[in-house]
Design brief:
single chain, alpha+beta, three-stranded antiparallel beta sheet, about 35% helix
C-alpha cells in the first residue's frame, strides 16, 4: 500500500476542523516543535502599540468592535438583581448548643455494642454532624425586652409583630379562626393595566383600583416582611392586555372571610388587616408567652424563628463545628448519666464500656 501524501492528508483533515473559517489552517505547516514563532500583526514592529492596534482600539471605542458591544447595545448583559443581605444576629441574645439527650443515648448504645473506646472529641463531631442531634439554647440578657415563645408550637420570636405574622401564616390560624370562601361579583370598570407581585405571582389589581395599595401592603406584611417596602415594590410588575385583566377579575370572584372561633354570623369580616388585629387582641396570650430563655431542637424550621435568631443559631453552629471541644463538658455529663466512664489518656479524654487497666507485667 502506498504511503499517503502528507499535504493531501493535511488538506483532508482541515475539512473536519471545528471553529470559524478564519481559524482553519490555510497557511503553510508550522515549524518543528521547539521553535517558537511570533507573527507580526501589522506593519508596526512595536509590541506596545502601532497604527493597526490604535485603529482597532478606536474602532472598538466607537462600538464596532466585538468586545465593546455590551456598552453600545450589541450584547447587553441583563442587570444583576441585588442580593438580599442576611439579617444581623440578634443583639443581646446568646445561643449555645448542647447535646440532645436521645442522640447521646444512641451513641452510648453503640459504644456498648461495639465495645470500643472512643475519643470524646470524635463523639462531639458525631453529634455536630446533624442539627437534630443538638439543642439550641436561647438566652436573652436582662436589659433587653423578653422574647415570645409559642404555647401551641415550637416557635420563638423577638417582637410581637413577628409573632403575629407567624400566627397569621402558620397552621395555627385554623385553630383560632373560622375561614370561609364565598362567591362575589368582580369589580366593574375599564381596566387596561394590572399589577402583579413579582415574587409570588399574586394579582394586586390595577394601580388605579381603590384596593391596590392595601393589597400591596398586605402581601408585603404577610409574606415578605423581611424586605424593605421600597425593595418589594420594585419587584412589582405590570401586565397589559385582556388576558391579564380577565385573570385578575377571575381571582376577584372569590372572597375569603374570617371570624374568631365561636363567633356569631355578624362577626364575619373580609378585611385581613382588621381580622389580624382582632386576632392579636383576643388570642395572642393564648398562643405566646414572654420569656428570657428557651431551648429547641437545632433542627427547628426557619419559619418558626425570627430571622435574626436563625442567624445567631447558624453562627453558633458554625462556631461549634470549628471548635467541637466546646461541647466536651456537656457530653461528659451526658455520657456519665448513661453509665459510661470518662478517662484521660495522654492528655485526651476517652469513653468506653469500661475503664481500661494496664496489664500486669
Amino acid at each position: 500500500m502506498s504511503k499517503p501524501d502528507p499535504e493531501s492528508l493535511n488538506a483532508l483533515m482541515a475539512n473536519f476542523a471545528l471553529g470559524p473559517s478564519w481559524a482553519k489552517a490555510t497557511s503553510p505547516p508550522s515549524k518543528p516543535a521547539g521553535k517558537k514563532e511570533f507573527r507580526d500583526s501589522g506593519p508596526s514592529k512595536d509590541s506596545r502599540g502601532g497604527a493597526d492596534r490604535r485603529e482597532r482600539f478606536d474602532r472598538d471605542d466607537r462600538g464596532g468592535g466585538p468586545f465593546n458591544r455590551g456598552r453600545k447595545g450589541g450584547f447587553d448583559r441583563p442587570p444583576r438583581e441585588p442580593r438580599d443581605e442576611p439579617p444581623a444576629p440578634a443583639a443581646g441574645v446568646n445561643v449555645t448548643l448542647v447535646p440532645e439527650p436521645h442522640a447521646v443515648q444512641l451513641v452510648a448504645k453503640e459504644i456498648h455494642q461495639v465495645a470500643r473506646v472512643y475519643p470524646i472529641i470524635d463523639v462531639a463531631k458525631i453529634l455536630l454532624a446533624e442539627r437534630g442531634r443538638c439543642i439550641a439554647v436561647f438566652e436573652a440578657s436582662s436589659d433587653r425586652p423578653p422574647m415570645f415563645r409559642g404555647r401551641l408550637d415550637t416557635s420563638l420570636f423577638l417582637t410581637r409583630a413577628e409573632a403575629m405574622d407567624h400566627l397569621w401564616q402558620s397552621d395555627l390560624k385554623p385553630q383560632l379562626l373560622d375561614e370561609e370562601t364565598t362567591e362575589s361579583d368582580p369589580p366593574s370598570g375599564n381596566f387596561q393595566v394590572v399589577a402583579r407581585c413579582g415574587l409570588s405571582g399574586e394579582w394586586l389589581g390595577p394601580p388605579n383600583f381603590h384596593a391596590y395599595q392595601s393589597n400591596l401592603r398586605r402581601i408585603h406584611q404577610e409574606r415578605y416582611p423581611h424586605l424593605p417596602f421600597a425593595v418589594y415594590t420594585s419587584k412589582v410588575r405590570t401586565e397589559r392586555g385582556e388576558e391579564a385583566v380577565n385573570a385578575w377579575l377571575e381571582s376577584m370572584k372569590q372572597r375569603t372571610r374570617w371570624r374568631i372561633k365561636g363567633g356569631s354570623d355578624d362577626d364575619w369580616s373580609d378585611d385581613p388587616m382588621a381580622v389580624k388585629r382582632l386576632l392579636e387582641q383576643r388570642c395572642f396570650d393564648q398562643a405566646f408567652e414572654e420569656t428570657h430563655q428557651a431551648s429547641f431542637a437545632a433542627s427547628i424550621a426557619p419559619s418558626h424563628l425570627s430571622p435574626s435568631l436563625m442567624t445567631s443559631m447558624r453562627m453558633a453552629g458554625n462556631h461549634a463545628r470549628n471548635h467541637p471541644s466546646l461541647l466536651i463538658p456537656a457530653i461528659c455529663k451526658a455520657l456519665e448519666k448513661e453509665h459510661l466512664p470518662i478517662f484521660k489518656r495522654q492528655g485526651k479524654l476517652f469513653t468506653g464500656p469500661a475503664r481500661p487497666h494496664p496489664l500486669p507485667k
